Amino acid sequence: xxxxxxxxxxxxxxxxxxxxxxxxxxxxxxxxxxxxxxxxxxxxxxxxxxxxxxxxxxxxxxxxxxxxxxxxxxxxxxxxxxxxxxxxxxxxxxxxxxxxxxxxxxxxxxxxxxxxxxxxxxxxxxxxxxxxxxxxxxxxxxxxxxxxxxxxxxxxxxxxxxxxxxxxxxxxxxxxxxxxxxxxxxxxxxxxxxxxxxxxxxxxxxxxxxxxxxxxxxxxxxxxxxxxxxxxxxxxxxxxxxxxxxxxxxxxxxxxxxxxxxxxxxxxxxxxxxxxxxxxxxxxxxxxxxxxxxxxxxxxxxxxxxxxxxxxxxxxxxxxxxxxxxxxxxxxxxxx
Amino acid sequence: xxxxxxxxxxxxxxxxxxxxxxxxxxxxxxxxxxxxxxxxxxxxxxxxxxxxxxxxxxxxxxxxxxxxxxxxxxxxxxxxxxxxxxxxxxxxxxxxxxxxxxxxxxxxxxxxxxxxxxxxxxxxxxxxxxxxxxxxxxxxxxxxxxxxxxxxxxxxxxxxxxxxxxxxxxxxxxxxxxxxxxxxxxxxxxxxxxxxxxxxxxxxxxxxxxxxxxxxxxxxxxxxxxxxxxxxxxxxxxxxxxxxxxxxxxxxxxxxxxxxxxxxxxxxxxxxxxxxxxxxxxxxxxxxxxxxxxxxxxxxxxxxxxxxxxxxxxxxxxxxxxxxx
Lengths: 336, 325
Ligand SMILES: Cc1ncc(C[n+]2csc(CCOP(=O)(O)OP(=O)(O)O)c2C)c(N)n1
Ligand SMILES: [Mg+2]
Hints:
Shape of chain B: globular
Radius of gyration of chain A: 20 Å
Number of strands of chain A: 8
CATH architecture of chain A: 3-Layer(aba) Sandwich
CATH class of chain A: Alpha Beta
CATH topology of chain A: Rossmann fold
CATH class of the largest domain in chain B: Alpha Beta
Oligomer: heterodimer
Structural class of chain B: alpha/beta
Strand order of the largest sheet of chain B: 3-2-4-5-7-6-12
Bound molecules: thiamine diphosphate, magnesium ion
Largest sheet of chain B: 7 strands, mixed
Largest sheet of chain A: 6 strands, parallel
Low-confidence stretches of chain A: none
């Protein structure tokens, strides 16, 4: 039976075509992350690898609303999805993860240090809390130069306990700088839950204590995230003042490759808890909405998935065929 | 004697000292419930309870401050940094407080605290996670600086560190946590600070290093032995205090030296060492001292670049050949 009532606009007032595009992006992120894990296990990558599975809405429902490269993005080492959303090609990301000359950091950064300044992406940061003091300076510069641009700074719940974060919040609140903080509250910092790491788990209160207004958002729902980001960005562009979103979400996989699901959740989270959160999978949820709206029949969902896999496979093939960085690049770029 | 891993020897030292002295406790990120990022503190929470094995938030300033203040107030804390790269967050508590309080108090306050954790380079961890910083601390008066290279030393030196009345910078090496060796089970086994170990005796040249680099020196020495070059390998074990007697004695015999470490060559500990050798043993030298150190760049990620940035046994062999040329 054909659907009669076909929705043309989403709750967030995004056209269905556009929304379908965002869905594709989230599928791409998921497939990309799965593939990085396999490639790491095959020995094609080294160092650390932190995946974004489950947190896709935090970037997909926000970064497309930015005016890159004028707006700036900072984030943590869990940065593959942020780079993808900023427009860094999957090929350049995969090549970076494999330490190739064609990588977005010329093979010098690896998974934790993806970067793409031409697209407004000022990089992933390996130091917990590290991006926050930097966001203060970026915000300062955006204001100083009289732009209407915003710096978006992603960081984790564990980072909220770093001293530098609070100094920076205080100064951002004091100087009234155009920074949007996205607290990726995936409930854990490695094996430490939020309740085991702070006496005040209401992160919004902490931002407010420094003069930064904020709110709590369900990061498992694309529309909620989109709307919160939209309001926050409009507010910052209008007032020039920072805003803080505590985005509740969950990482479906272990902290890093060393902590995969097979061992990780046994001693700091239960399998039951993980499965409860997986029921809120943001991709499944948006997919269900689109299907209900009549624009995502099963065949199309399958096609989108296959296309994502093809993009990832192409990135892998490109990376594997790319040369290592030339040895004389070792001493290049220590200074400008 | 028992055969155990370097990481297990560290755990044994802490366990014995905690059993001996109630004022010893551990604090750090993931040291308890998670069983330690590198499993060094595995099982210690269930053994000693949360009063003495304290899981902290990711707050290095807090960890260093907690340990320093508790030491000033009569406890003997062991603060674990997940890696020494993250201790950079805590430099003020370390350098401006822990290292100076004894002096600033005219000796009325002592600060018996151990700051420990993995240091060193490798495994493609790149710029912010892969670096050696021992000279930063050796440069600061007030710290003792310890870098064990074997399981036996890991135990003996950590026990000495815990009983020492001063702040001790104890740098382990993640690359050798799994290395096995004989470790004395005697609960009073301690290795005094300031006593270098001669790992191999030789008559042609002295190789001086510490931590992981000692293993590379031994490998180089083994290869050179086949060419008829007899190297004496010295493991400094502690940079502060520094055992120059053992170094000078060796150079009086060999008349040549290579100083080697993984940290950056520029202003690295090898420069201090070479300078002291020139001051104390110049008349015995037959050739300029050769220095081997890391490339003076932030650590790159790519495997080939990383390999080029970290000094190897081959670099040591080349340095030996230059010194003997
Ligand atoms: C200053 C500092 N301390 C410790 C670490 C080691 N570390 C890396 S990630 C991590 C957990 C961070 O958790 P959170 O901020 O919640 O971010 P998530 O990984 O959950 O995205 C820790 C302890 C680090 N990188 N930097
Ligand atoms: Mg987290």
